[in-house]
Amino acid sequence: MQILLAHIGARPSSKDQFEAISSMYLERCSAFARCQAESFRSETALFEWLDRQHRRAPAITVFLDSRGRQLTSEQFAEWLGRQRDNGAQQIVFAIGPADGWSESAQKRATLLFSLGPLTLAHALARVVLAEQLYRAFTILTGHPYHSGH
Predict the structure, then answer these.
(1) Which domain holds residue 15?
(2) Which tens digit of pLDDT belongs to each residue from 103-116?
(3) CB distance 26 to 35 below 8 Å
(4) Please, are residues 41 and 8 in contact by the beta-carbon 8 Å criterion?
(5) What is the CATH number of the domain that holds 6?
(6) How many domains does the chain have?
(7) Is 146 inside a domain boundary?
(8) Would you say residue 70 lies in a domain?
(9) Does residue 48 form part of some domain?
(10) Does an H or E element contain 114, and which?
(11) 3-state secondary structure of 70
């Protein structure tokens, strides 16, 4: 399974401390799945990229949106485990543009997912999502990283 952490906006600087933390968590996730991060200039660029992907099944698209479904870490791990166990080849977690996902983009999402009711800066949302992906994988494997409180 491949995990792509995508966002709409400028490519982060190599000196961006948030980017370093996101990369650290994605690297930790690589013990469980192939993981990478990518930035796209617009929704259109993301969808063009998705449309060019040739796989047995289309990517599962999870768009972060404050109006989306909120899950506990355990529920998120369970959801991720189901996708893995059902043979998902690629899951794309995408953080949208500053003014939110368009209505047509929302319709293309497999899941609208919320990290909570707070509005987060893109860089911080990437860190939180990358850490939650790592946490989910550790929950699924019984690793002690997640203590459940």
Answers:
(1) 2-141
(2) 999 999 999 999 99
(3) yes
(4) yes
(5) 3.40.1280.10
(6) 1
(7) no
(8) yes
(9) yes
(10) strand 111-114
(11) strand
Instruction: Please give the single-letter amino acid code of residue 105.
Output: A
* Model pTM score: 0.92
Tell me how far apart the alpha carbons of residues 110 and 81 are, in angstroms, rounded to a whole number.
16
Q: What's the CA gap between 84 and 102, in Å, rounded? A: 28
- Sign of the CA dihedral with 108 first, then 129, 14, and 24 last: negative
- Structure letter (DSSP) for residue 10: P
| 2-8 vs 34-40, strand pairing mode | parallel
Mean of pLDDT over the chain:
92
**Category of 7 on φ-ψ map: left (φ > 0), alpha (ψ -120 to 50) or beta:** beta
Whether 147 is covered by a domain: the verdict is no
Contacting residues for 136 by C-beta, under 8 A, at least 6 apart: 73, 76, 77, 80, 81
Element (H, E) at 38: strand 34-40
Using pLDDT thresholds of 50, 70 and 90, give the confidence band for residue 60: very high
Render pLDDT for 12-37 as a digit per residue (tens, 0 to 9).
777 789 999 999 999 999 999 999 99
| Run of H or E including 39 | strand 34-40
Query: What pLDDT, on a 0 to 100 scale, did the predictor assign at position 119?
Result: 87
CA–centroid distance for 88 within its chain:
14
The pair of three-digit structure tokens given for residue 48, joined into one six-digit string:
């063009």
Task: Please give the structure tokens belonging to residue 142.
Answer: 């019984």
